[in-house]
Write a structure and sequence with these properties.
This protein is of the alpha+beta class and about 190 residues long. Helix content is about 55%, strand content about 15%. A four-stranded antiparallel β-sheet has the order 1-2-3-4. A hairpin with a 3-residue loop joins β1 and β2. α1 packs across α3, α2 packs antiparallel against α3 and α3 runs antiparallel to α4. The longest helix is centred in the first third of the chain and has 42 residues. About 5% of the residues have low confidence.
């Protein structure tokens, strides 16, 4: 039997936390699912419209649509690793990223709508690319930006969501330091 006296303040705090978390959970779910949906839809469009290596100019000298398969990480990172090691490094990196995003979603500093949206975009992008790895053994990329002969590595909507999410986190207003009370004057201590 519980012998501690009932504390109404602790009950209202618990109820307030539950109602406070629901809007954040809905925001995280909606943003993540929108990113995943847009990512997978556009990848299916690219897969049905292109053969690997096809190029369709959209804006001459700047932007093409294409189809490529990235066996590495974002923007071709780690494609040079030998098969086997690449999969281990990628799986570890993806797992670490998902754990970090999940952890940050629970931290007080990241409870603003902007921070939750940014983290949700990162989460949705990561999940979108993981889906590709399971379905195709690689990530489907189709956006090709370039200037002259320099081409940025091809990417997709998931990669864009991850980059935008990280960018938003970088520009988030910094947390205000907790204010500390001014020290009491010597004559106030008597």
């Amino acid at each position: 039997m519980n012998t501690r006296p009932h504390n109404p303040a602790s009950t209202s705090h618990t109820v307030a936390n539950r109602s406070w978390c629901l809007p954040h959970a809905v925001l995280v779910a909606v943003v993540s699912f929108v990113v995943i949906g847009c990512d997978q839809l556009t990848k299916q469009m690219a897969l049905s419209s292109f053969q690997p290596g096809d190029v369709r100019p959209v804006i001459d000298g700047l932007f093409n649509l294409t189809l490529s398969f990235n066996r590495g990480a974002a923007f071709g990172l780690w494609t040079g690793l030998s098969s086997g090691w690449r999969e281990v490094v990628l799986a570890s990196t993806i797992l670490l990223a998902l754990v970090v995003v999940g952890f940050l979603l629970t931290r007080p500093y990241y409870q603003s709508k902007l921070a939750q949206t940014a983290l949700s975009a990162i989460l949705g992008g990561a999940i979108g690319n993981v889906i590709d790895r399971f379905m195709y053994g690689a990530v489907v990329d189709f956006l090709d930006f370039y200037v002259g002969s320099y081409h940025w590595p091809a990417f997709n909507i998931a990669d864009s969501a991850i980059c935008v999410g990280v960018g938003l986190l970088v520009i988030l207003p910094k947390a205000e330091p907790a204010s500390t009370p001014a020290p009491a004057a010597a004559n106030d201590r008597i």
